[in-house]
């Protein structure tokens, strides 16, 4: 990957990792997760430098003593890159890079590098490039430090400023182009979604923390062969397949990119086209690694991203996966008063998957059923949408200029359509 800052991660490259234990959750990250990120990117970890601080240093993020320790590790191991488990400013990256004598990448740069490696589809590559460019646009000065000597010089002040402005304009133009192309992808996705809706096929999305086992469960439920590995962000591009729900139901299942702690807002925005599959779902299967020590924190992080994209209202079934790795865990369904059940299973062995399908069938409820709606005269868009969906079996006009409509449609689809058009279903009955 190369986003124009000279910080590309090369496969097999020797790296020194830097992890700071802050007593502030705003900055704290997990060391084990950091190691997994580094391995997933293809780096060879030579050493890990750790420290404790109460707050980041403004110049280097860490203290000067630790900068010297990192430099010594770089020399001793022959490392070509230093990776921080934290988000650094452009100035902090530049200062550390100058003092340790090799390239420096922060946590966000590392995640972007993994995304760039994993993207396979046209859409995925566009989304990665958009995220890279948005990040680069705030860090352009890194690429032009050689112009700093010109500042203040008579006759030399303009060229440096002009070059930066030119680069910003070129990046802005490219971002606009990518946004346009992703808009086209989004419209195509909406067309495909409308076709699925006409067939009354509910949409189910797998969500969860990265490496929770979503793709393995996707393969188990669909019989597909989507790439699944014990790596962070093994899946980046969205995949959709049809699944059978007992006794005679079909649904569309989508596998989505995994989430991670402190996922930057810009990255979420870049992948909004992909995450729209989550936003349009009738049901979310929230997959959790049952053996993860931080599973409660990871669940909270996933729910924060779900809320950020506007999908917090969609029902969730909690799925505790990888029970085969703990002999004390068995497949089971837990019922919770007033909330959705949770399922304990192993996607790898298949234990508990039948129970999950039964729970899904119960939650999705019935096949299309007859019902009547009374639409006011102002609800013409909703009326057209119901006809487009193929849900209207007959209609008649009422004395107020509205419509009395007889429908054949399943409840989740009707709820979704009415909600999309800005109406309350109960008020129309």
Shape: globular
Distance from first to last alpha carbon: 55 Å
Q: Main sheet: which strands, in order across?
A: 6-7-5-8-9-11-10
Classify the helix fraction into a percent range.
Answer: 40-55%
Poorly predicted regions: 1-6, 142-160
Order of helices and strands: EHEHEHEHHHEHEEHHEHEEEHEHEEHH
Residue-averaged pLDDT: 80
Question: What's the total helix number?
Answer: 14
Strand content: 15-25%
- Would you report the number of β strands? 14
Structural class: alpha/beta
Main beta-sheet annotation: 7 strands, mixed
Task: Explain how this protein is built.
By secondary structure, the protein is an alpha/beta fold. The protein is 41% helix and 21% strand. The chain contains 14 helices and 14 strands. It has a 7-stranded mixed β-sheet with strand order 6-7-5-8-9-11-10, sandwiched between helices. It has a 4-stranded parallel β-sheet with strand order 2-1-3-4, sandwiched between helices. Helix 1 packs parallel to helix 4 and helix 5 runs antiparallel to helix 6. The longest helix has 42 residues.
